[in-house]
Amino acid sequence: MLFVTIVPLTxxxxxxxxxxxxxxxxxxxxxxxxxxxxxxxxxxxxxxxxLSTVRFVASAYSxxxxxxxxxLNRIFRVLKKEFGGFVDLGLIDQSGTQISYAGPYExxxxxxxxxxxxxxxxxxxxxxxxxxxxxxxxPHVALAVQRFSEDGSFWVLRATIDTERFDNLIASMGxxxxxxxxxxxxxxxxxxxxxxxxxxxxxxxxxxxxGIYGTFVKxxxxxxxxxxxxxxxxxxxxxxxxxxVKRSSGLxxxxxxxxxxxxxxxxxxxxxxxxxxxxxxxxxxxRMRDADERREIALRELEHSNKLSSIGRxxxxxxxxxxxxxxxxxxxxxxxxxxxxxxxxxxxxEKFLELLSSIISSVQRCKTVTHRLLGFARRxxxxxxxxxxxxxxxxxxxxxxxxxxxRNINVSLHFASDLPRIFSDRGQLQQVFLNIxxxxxxxxxxxxxxxxxxxxxxxxxxxxxIMDNGCGMSGETMRHxxxxxxxxxxxxxxxxGLPITYGIVKKxxxxxxxxxxxxxxxxxxxxxxxKAQQQVGG
Length: 538
Known about the structure:
Elements lengths: L1 H59 L2 H5 L1 H14 L3 E7 L5 E5 L13 H9 L1 E3 L11 E9 L5 E9 L1 H8 L8 E6 L29 E7 L5 E8 L5 E8 L5 H89 L7 H29 L7 E3 L1 H18 L3 E5 L7 E3 L1 H18 L5 E8 L4 E8 L6 H4 L18 H11 L3 E7 L3 E9 L9
Parallel strand pairs: 11-13
Antiparallel strand pairs: 1-2, 1-5, 3-4, 4-5, 6-9, 7-8, 8-9, 10-12, 13-14, 14-16, 15-16
């Protein structure tokens, strides 16, 4: 259902996104970025040209020559005639005093020692100011360069130019009447007038990103609530940003056309989703019903398997219990048969021999039955093979991993990395550790802990301990845990798990020990020979 729901909506979103981007790039973004980039380049060339002119004058003439007002005035007239835009030209000595001036104002002798721009030109060697009014009461920009005399002193040649050329460069962009363009400095102050967002030297009413190198285009909402497309490009020196603001009204006509097409796709998609969801829901309900039925069958089969397992364990216990008295009966009956057979004077000799033969035959029949019961519960012969005890424990844990995960039981493994391989019976060891781990999980609460540790006990023996932090056992309980049919699991325990476990360990030539304390936990330790030897007897 989720897949069928997402596909149409995702398709619409992807088409929407790419059509929107293509429309922007094709109709607005790319041409606008190119226009802004070219105009920024023109601004940079204009300022660099004027700055290079001032540099040339400062390099071509000495301090003494520029100190002569006639020379300075002649240079100023040439600059104004050939380049245009120059308002005045002044020479400032090392003390910050203007000692020579050419221009329309009375600035001779003015001190600039406390001006921040003078300190900047002293550090950087060159300076281009923001637009300001100053004594002139009209917008202009100051340019200054630093030069050094042969005696190590320095002087500054400073010129101002009007910003009319700024307006001319913006006008040459050929923008439509609804599009605005302006310069703003890194403090957000307008360096040229804007149609909609303020006059020169006012703070720009539009939040414009400044200090971003390269050309950028972004969508914003201006203070008047109008959606606008902002394109900008940053000048490195001075820190101006050329901004073009294009209002969104009438822009993406192709986009609005696409929206109607997308609406049709959306309606068709929703209709298809409704039909498919109904069908999928019906199918899922049917599958869930079938799954429930299969689960019921599996649970019944599992219950039946558990019953068979319990019967098998009971059969093993009964078989072991019956075999011993049957063996005694068989021996006694054989002895009696020998005595009667070798007796010479006995009237009922034939009758007794017939009865004893019947007893022996019945014992053999019982033996066959008990062997079949043992075969049902567990094979009797030990089959030795080389085993990795750590790996075998991992296999057994695999049977119980789901229960441990479901009950949030933490099973910690501390396996000896250099544990030697042993020769023993894989299946019977699996049953031993499965029985112990099953009891441990039954003893701990949800969220409990079981720790399994392996080590080499001595040159002939390895050991495995299984410790849990469950309910533990009392001393009285510990005395009976290896007795058949003794159980603390009232209602579902058979009392044969640990007795069978004990018998298997002993049959393999090992030993098992238990330590337990109520409310603290239990530790089973199994000692196994590196090469098992089948023990004689049940």
